[in-house]
């Protein structure tokens, strides 16, 4: 049902649309400068790589850069390890692909290392106007639109989503809905957005009121959505902003009582059932459960195979893009953990309404691999109280890792190792936030430099485990091999074994042989040590 747009939501939507439009104009200008500069160094492989690397380091929203020259040289990728992992991410274009336009928008593509990415491509011409090839940017729309939101402080009071003209959700405040197709009437979103979303494709702008449900608080309430269509580089997208009708925010006094021991027993029982039955029978059994804890089964590409009753997922959809309050790709970390035998990990679920979460609830997740193709997860709150979220924390740690990588590209491995091992790192001096980790590690797990724990240099990180017994070092390497990204590091507090430090980490591969790890402290929490509660 269409209604008149409330003034406050309409104003915030207009402000967000202005910022997004201006942001894409700047992206367009910067990208054209890159294409022009590439044309001036056409034929010089080293100069081309330097330009691509600098552009990549300066733009954390970029997942992958590709330059395809027509001169016969191999395609150049930044980071350069990606083509071996994602050879299907691109389709070669030629000069005729850009006929009538100097910009090409394609996608989204699904890339196992990054999730769903969009492509923007430009033709590259030499100074005498000869076609040299093209350059492409593949970007994570979640990261990009989150960065835009940082310039609209009012969005901390609202939820937002970005949908393309075909009904594909490119971004949503609740990151797990990225990738949904809302081109027709559907209730499959669990009423988070509701069946009204298909109206967005027929109405260029409007407002609606609907019932919403939050799995975090198990409450149903009314929401108001206001949307408008915006032209971005010739590509129509729909921006929407919504908020609860009443109350303005989800109550923060709801308490959870974790039952880690019960969760462990339930996990073991499900694993034993899976071992005694076929995969198909187990998935049917899981779908019929009404468990105490949220149960979801995934394959190793992040597809949901089955879910218990009441769990807000959809069987058959891919959830590799699920991100938590700190922009950590949760399912990707689940996959990494399953690949090393399973175990416990943690996730901060956004608990506040808004584009940039201001409060979050810490969850404990158990990952139990059944075989090398699929795994079962259970989830329960690890804390009974909400924790404040520090805005832009992920940007701080990402920028540090990117700056270290750029320095490595410009000056070489030995220079960045020397800086980090010097005891007075210039990289650290220029970083923002409460940095707790900065290290160089090779793909075999050997520590080459460590700014905070010099004694770890020369050791192998595969034997390093976190507070829940998982090999955090192996997760670093797996993440680097997959293109890098955000993850957690949960360590026992050396001063108080009853507590644990939760850190946000960013892994950035420099090339095929080594990578940078940067970390920032989130908080210290009371340990929920499941290993001591095993039956």
UniProtKB/TrEMBL annotation:
**Residue span(s) of domain Single Cache:** 439-523
Q: Which Gene3D superfamilies match?
A: PAS domain
Where it sits in the cell: the answer is: Cell membrane
For the keyword Transmembrane helix, the answer is yes
The answer to whether the entry has keyword Membrane is: yes
- Its topology with respect to the membrane? Multi-pass membrane protein
Q: Which InterPro entries match?
A: sCache_2
Q: Which UniProt keywords apply?
A: Cell membrane, Membrane, Transmembrane, Transmembrane helix
A UniProt-annotated Pfam family: sCache_2
The primary site where this protein sits is membrane
Report what the protein is called.
Cache domain-containing protein
- Source organism lineage? Archaea, Methanobacteriati, Methanobacteriota, Stenosarchaea group, Methanomicrobia
């Amino acid at each position: 049902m269409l209604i008149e747009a409330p003034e406050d939501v309409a104003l915030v939507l207009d402000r967000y649309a202005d910022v997004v439009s201006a942001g894409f104009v700047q992206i367009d200008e910067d990208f054209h400068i890159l294409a022009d500069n590439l044309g001036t160094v056409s034929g010089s492989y080293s100069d081309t790589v330097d330009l691509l690397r600098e552009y990549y380091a300066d733009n954390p929203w970029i997942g992958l850069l590709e330059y395809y020259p027509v001169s016969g040289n191999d395609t150049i990728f930044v980071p350069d390890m990606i083509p071996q992992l994602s050879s299907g991410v691109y389709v070669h274009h030629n000069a005729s692909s850009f006929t009538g336009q100097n910009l090409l928008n394609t996608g989204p593509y699904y890339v196992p290392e990054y999730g769903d990415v969009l492509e923007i491509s430009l033709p590259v011409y030499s100074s005498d106007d000869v076609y040299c090839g093209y350059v492409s940017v593949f970007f994570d729309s979640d990261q990009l639109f989150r960065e835009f939101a940082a310039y609209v402080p009012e969005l901390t009071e609202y939820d937002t989503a970005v949908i393309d003209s075909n009904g594909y959700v490119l971004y949503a405040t609740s990151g797990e809905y990225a990738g949904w197709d809302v081109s027709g009437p559907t209730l499959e979103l669990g009423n988070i957005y509701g069946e009204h979303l298909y109206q967005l494709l027929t109405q260029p702008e409007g407002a609606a009121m609907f019932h919403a449900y939050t799995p975090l608080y198990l409450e149903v309430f009314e929401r108001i959505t206001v949307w408008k269509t915006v032209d971005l580089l010739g590509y129509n997208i729909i921006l929407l902003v919504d908020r609860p009708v009443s109350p303005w925010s989800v109550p923060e006094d709801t308490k959870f009582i974790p039952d880690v021991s019960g969760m462990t027993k339930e996990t073991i029982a499900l694993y034993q059932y899976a071992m005694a039955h076929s995969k198909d029978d187990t998935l049917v059994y899981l779908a019929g459960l009404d468990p105490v804890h949220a149960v979801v089964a995934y394959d190793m590409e992040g597809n949901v195979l089955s879910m218990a009753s009441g769990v807000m997922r959809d069987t058959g959809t891919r959830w590799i893009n699920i991100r938590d309050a700190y922009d950590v790709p949760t399912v990707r970390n689940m996959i990494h953990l399953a690949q090393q035998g399973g175990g416990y990990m943690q996730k901060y679920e956004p608990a506040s309404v808004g584009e940039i979460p201001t409060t979050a609830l810490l969850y404990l997740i158990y990952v139990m691999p059944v075989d090398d193709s699929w795994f079962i997860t259970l989830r329960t709150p690890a804390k009974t109280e909400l924790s404040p979220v520090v805005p832009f924390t992920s940007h701080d740690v990402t920028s540090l890792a990117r700056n270290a990588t750029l320095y490595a590209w410009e000056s070489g491995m030995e220079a960045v190792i020397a800086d980090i091992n010097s005891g007075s790192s210039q990289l650290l001096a220029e970083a923002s936030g409460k940095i707790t980790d900065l290290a160089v590690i090779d793909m075999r797990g050997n520590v080459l430099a460590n700014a905070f724990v010099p004694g770890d240099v020369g050791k192998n990180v595969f034997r390093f485990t976190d507070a829940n017994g998982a090999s955090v070092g192996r997760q670093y390497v797996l993440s680097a091999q997959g293109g890098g990204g955000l993850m957690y590091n949960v360590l026992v507090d050396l001063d108080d074994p009853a507590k644990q430090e939760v850190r946000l980490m960013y892994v950035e591969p420099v090339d095929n042989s080594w990578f940078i790890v940067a970390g920032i402290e989130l908080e210290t929490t009371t340990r929920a040590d499941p290993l001591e509660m095993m039956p």
